Amino acid sequence: MKITKDMTIGELVRDYPEVLNVLFDFGMGCVGCPSAQVETIEEACGVHGLDVNELLAALNNSVK
Fold it and tell me: 8 in helix, strand or coil?
């Protein structure tokens, strides 16, 4: 697994820009939010009421 729940949203988008559509599909438009630089994927899922494991599976399936 390349993408983990401990990565920040900012790190995720910087390292894997191809995941933007996955984030948007899950209703996470927070990629440009200032807190995205320090908020982990797990924390963002908590804020948005998403299952972190479901999002991680989709994110990892979208990267090469």
Answer: strand
Write out pLDDT tens, residues 32-53.
778 888 999 999 999 899 999 9
Q: Tell me the sheet residues that pair with 40.
A: 8
Cβ(40)–Cβ(6) below 8 Å: yes
CA-CA distances (angstroms) from residue 63 to 12, 13, 15, 39? 11, 11, 10, 21
What's the rounded Cα separation, in Å, for the pair 49 and 64?
27
Domain spans in the chain, listed from the N-terminal domain onward = 9-62
What is the model's pLDDT at position 43? 95
SS3 40: strand
**Rounded Cα gap, residues 25 and 19, in angstroms:** 10
